Amino acid sequence: MSQQLLVPDIGDFDEVEVIEVLVKVSDKIKKNDPIVTLESDKSSVEVPSTFEGTVESINVKVGDKVSKGHLLVTLNSETQTQEIPKKNIEEKLPTDTENIIKEAEDTLVLKKEVKETKILPQKKNKNEKIEIVKNGDIDPIETKEWLESLSAVLENDGKNRAQFLIKQLIEHSYKEGSDLVLSRNTPYINTISPEEEKKSPGDQNIERKIRSLIRWNSAAMVVRANKKNPELGGHIGTFASAATLYDVGMNHFWRAKNNKFGGDLIYFQGHSAPGMYARAYLEGRITSKELDNFRQEVKPGGLSSYPHPWLMPKFWQFPTVSMGLGPIMSIYQARFTKYLINRGLLKDEGRKIWCFLGDGETDEPESLGAIGLAAREKLDNLIFVVNCNLQRLDGPVRGNGKIIQELEGIFRGAGWNVIKVIWGSYWDTLLAKDKTGLLIKRMNEAVDGEYQAFKAKGGAFVREKFFGKYPELLNLVSQMTDKDIWRLNRGGHDPHKVYAAYHSAMQNTGTPTVILAKTIKGYGMGKSGESINTTHQQKKLDEKDLLYYRDRFDVPLTDQQVKNIEYYKPPDNSPEIKYLKECRIKLGGNLPERSSFAKSIKTPSEDIFKAMKESTGEKEMSTTMVLVRMLTSLLRDKNVAPRLVPIIPDEARTFGMEGFFQKIGIYAHEGQKYEPVDSEQLSSYREDVKGQVLEEGINEAGAMSSWIAAGTSYTNHDISMIPIYIFYSMFGFQRTGDLAWAAGDNQTRGFLIGATAGRTTLAGEGLQHGDGHSHILSSVIPNCKSYDPTFAYELSTIFREGLRRMHDKQENIFYYITTMNENYTHPKMPKDKSVEKGILKGMYLFKEYNKYKKTKIQLLGSGAILREMIKAAEILQNEYHIDSNLWSVTSYNELRKEAIEVERYNLLNPDKRPKKTYIEECLSSTEGPIVAASDYMRLNSDQIRPFTNKSFYSFGTDGYGRSDTRKNLRKFFEVDKEHLVTYSLSVLAKEQLISSKYAKEAIKKYKIDPEKPIPTKL
Ligand SMILES: Cc1ncc(C[n+]2csc(CCOP(=O)(O)OP(=O)(O)O)c2C)c(N)n1
Ligand SMILES: [Mg+2]
To answer: What secondary structure letter does DSSP report for 381?
Structure first.
């Protein structure tokens, strides 16, 4: 039977243009196959078929304007008529909703029951004096009874029942009107009780020996480097505090990538790098010569100061040393792993993402800023380990408080599974022996400033200041020597406790886990750096300290060897090395190790980009729209389509990308539990567990982290993805520049699109939005290629080349491209072969004005300002008889990079024939001075000034932006056609090529005020 396919509800648009008809008569089409592409003045969207069938007739053609209800095609269809697909909302209520309803119902029943049976306590007379006895307890006997009841429950029915009852009590107290905020904190003791601890299967003796050797070698490499040259620096204290945390992971938990398994991903804390090298040395992956080249990276074979994949691309996977970036990137890594799994692109192998961070590092907003997302998205593949050595660089992290408790509250509140590893096994007996509850009380009371001092000042001090506060506690330790007290260890240094915590974290499902491990900064460094405020920067140990360190960890070196600061590596057939290697073999291989087995993605054919290379005729469109059109076309390329990862920080509608919502869906790990309010519309907000778009909300740092995760998927998941992160250009490099730098280090491959770009192009938004410098900022990143195209064919040429270089040829570069929201017509791509090459190299001759052959000028225009320059060239020709070469400069950054390379070559090869820079190739044999202008600061075009050997004048948008019309803004910043004409005339006069009267006349004609201050002062 015949079915009519009509234009569905397309939102607030009417009379939209058909820009593509994607079917032909007698084509067989399936449901959801695109029929036509419609384009409003802001966005383009494909209309999918709502039934299967054969096309009988087509009722529209390209260029037609259609509205809702317009007949598109008639189909001969076997199947039944179907409306625009409504969401697959199951009749059944989502489980969570059911649970909420059930909980509410239970509450009602409970409330009723309680009402009936409740014996109301005698209300206390308001004026009655309540006597507060010791410690705020008005009725210690009653307290005792309650506690005894709880103990009985714990003993008879276990901790779950006890927890249940406590939860009931809390809920009940709220229902009865108590508004006390009950603490999100648990006491200052380990989360896992000794009875619940999973015992390590490892050989503790041998593991201690191995750990001691790693400790020694890592300290030795820092000390040796600094002996060689104190400039080199390095850290001993961070790894000294974290050695056990890493060792337990390396020996028992972290699985490497191999041909059977994708590998766990470990974000190592930047300052503990020496420890990773020291282990790799024992494993035979790094030589002693390389250890001696720690922090001497200029010659090949040096070891990088911190984890930098750029510098050690076969070793380090994640750059973490700019504090806060590791944590946020790891969260989005865990989320992206789930994204790949949910989209069916990656096998779910239960891989984990571990991130190590310092307790001081948690003060970085990036460290904690995304923990809500991790809980919301149920990232149970994520484990944070916070090394709580209570110190940062200058001193204590929370001298007056307790960082572990603070973090516990924050993470618990966000919905994480929190495991505190505070006390080592030596404390277990004491805690069990203490029946007064005073030990926990004292533990709760002492602040981190005190805990730091306890580990700096010895056992007698701890006896006096910690236990000495209560006679009962003094009594508790009366049988212990000061040495015994000193040996009371911290959880993060106890391999049993750490093993139990890691094991428990591995079992946890439904939430991310954070392990808060209490350690000692500079553990083992003695007087020279254990738990003192200067520990962080300690990079030298004198002979006495080294001997102490050796003895403390029983390193089998003679005094002389210690004095020589020799490394220690047992023979390969020693039990230690065999054990170490066996552990890693069991866990699949070495860590850290970076590799990639990803296949390249074939560059899409030229056809996909064909439409972008044609003239748009009368039709005006912005480059942002061109980009969206191009992405829509790319979604039809079977190689590229599944790999595209559009990333948007809540701006899809600004950029006209809402069409993607319906077409490829928004990723949502729980699918869509509600019918979206706009479900009838073509661009309805469709969330889907297989959704492709990462809609990040207002979160540029998160979006950038997602982009990095996707752009490094080729190495971390062995599948290349093509992330395209689109943002307000002002909130890109300026906002998240450090992440962009880390992305370069990480060899991220993908596109950053600075949309609504240009200081005068995003007209109404003003000072904080008008971007006139993002290209300067992007220029500082060595492997970032940035472009400021004007026309559709320029943009599509650059984009295709990006795909070819990054994803087909697998080059470690990324692209920053600015797109604008100003609508204008786009010309056809010039035929000349040099154009494509020029677009990619940074400039090409757009047009030559050569009518009068008297006076000539070189005009360089970019991005939004190229069109002003075109108009200026026409005025100069028509009104002043001045010829010009008009160049479209797509990238000053690219031009400069090439020029400095050529210049350097020429200077270093004085006897060879000098090479020509591309700038020279373009400009050296041309006539007249150069006038260059862009919508960015003058510094942008000034970049090529030294390479032109000509008079060069830059114009740009230096100064704070402001909101106004584009015309007024361009006049204000002096980059409108009138100013460009006037400045050109003035430049020609200065070069004595024409009389100055023309410039003077133009200043008058265009009402330019020479007295107006420069915009940087306004
Ligand atoms: C963004 C950033 N700011 C500052 C530093 C300098 N810095 C390096 S380590 C450090 C202290 C680290 O303390 P913490 O996070 O507690 O780590 P720990 O060494 O104690 O394990 C500081 C301030 C940095 N690396 N990154
Ligand atoms: Mg610290």
So the answer is: T
Neighbouring residues of the ion ligand 2, judged by CB less than 5 Å: 358-360, 389, 391
Determine which residue's CA is closest to atom 19 belonging to ligand 1: 238
Average pLDDT over residues 893-909: 98
Joined tokens for residue 508:
């946890």
Q: 330-348, pLDDT tens digit by residue?
A: 999 999 999 999 999 999 9
Lookup result for tokens 């940062």: 392
Tell me which ligand sits closest to the C-alpha of residue 356: 1
The alpha carbon torsion through 204, 206, 211, 216 (nearest 10 deg) reads: 140
The SS3 call for residue 920 is helix
Q: What's the 191 CA to ligand 2 centre distance in angstroms? A: 21
Spatial separation of the C-alpha atoms in residues 826 and 623, rounded to whole Å: 9
**628 pLDDT more than 90:** yes
For atom 22 of ligand 1, the residue with the nearest CA is 393
Cα dihedral 797, 799, 801, 805 in deg (nearest 10) = 180
Mean pLDDT (the chain) is 92
Atom of ligand 1 nearest to the CA of 241: 21
Contacts 24+ apart (CB under 8 A), 600-603: 600/720, 600/807, 600/808, 600/809, 600/810, 601/639, 601/640, 601/643, 601/720, 601/722, 601/803, 601/807, 601/808, 602/639, 602/808, 603/800, 603/803, 603/804, 603/807, 603/808
Number of the ligand 1 atom closest to the C-alpha atom of 362: 15
Q: For the segment 594-612, what is each residue's pLDDT rounded down to a tens digit?
A: 999 999 999 999 999 999 9
> Which ligand has its closest atom nearest to the C-alpha of 362?
1
The pLDDT tens digits for 779-833 are: 999 999 999 999 999 999 999 999 999 999 999 999 999 999 999 999 999 999 8
DSSP 868-915: HHHHHHHHHHHHH-EEEEEEEES-HHHHHHHHHHHHHHHHH-TTSPPP
pLDDT of residue 176: 76
Residue with tokens 């000495």: 468
Residues 6+ apart with CB under 8 A from 474: 463, 467, 468
Give, for ligand 1, the residue of 238, 323, 362, 388 to mutate: max count of ligand atoms closer than 8 Å to Cβ.
Answer: 323
Compute the distance from residue 217 Cα to the ligand 2 centre, in Å: 22
Q: Which residue has the higher pLDDT, 11 or 867?
A: 867
Q: Which ligand is nearest to the CA of 325?
A: 1
Mean pLDDT value of segment 516-534:
85
**Secondary structure string (H, E, C) spanning 542-575:** CHHHHHHHHHHCCCCCCHHHHHCCCCCCCCCCCH
| Ligand 1 probe mutation, 361, 368, 520, most atoms within 8 A of CB | 361
Distance CA 907, CA 905 (A): 6
pLDDT (average), residues 527-545 = 80
pLDDT for 95? 52
Whether the pLDDT of residue 953 is over 80: the answer is yes
741 CA from centroid of ligand 1 (Å):
18
Task: Determine the distance separating the centroid of ligand 1 and the alpha carbon of 361, expressed in angstroms.
Answer: 6
* pLDDT value at 122 more than 80: no
The letter for the amino acid at 444 is N
Question: Which residue among 536, 736, 739 has the greatest number of ligand 1 atoms within 8 angstroms of its CB, and so is best to mutate?
Answer: 536
Q: What is the pTM of this model?
A: 0.91
Cα torsion at 404, 409, 412, 417 (round to 10°)? 10
Q: Which residues line ligand 1 (CB under 6 A)?
A: 238, 241, 271, 321-324, 358-361, 387, 389, 391-393, 397, 521, 536
Length of the chain: 1018
Task: Tell me which residue has its CA closest to atom 13 in ligand 1.
Answer: 392
Give the model confidence (pLDDT) of 170-181 as tens digits: 777 776 777 666
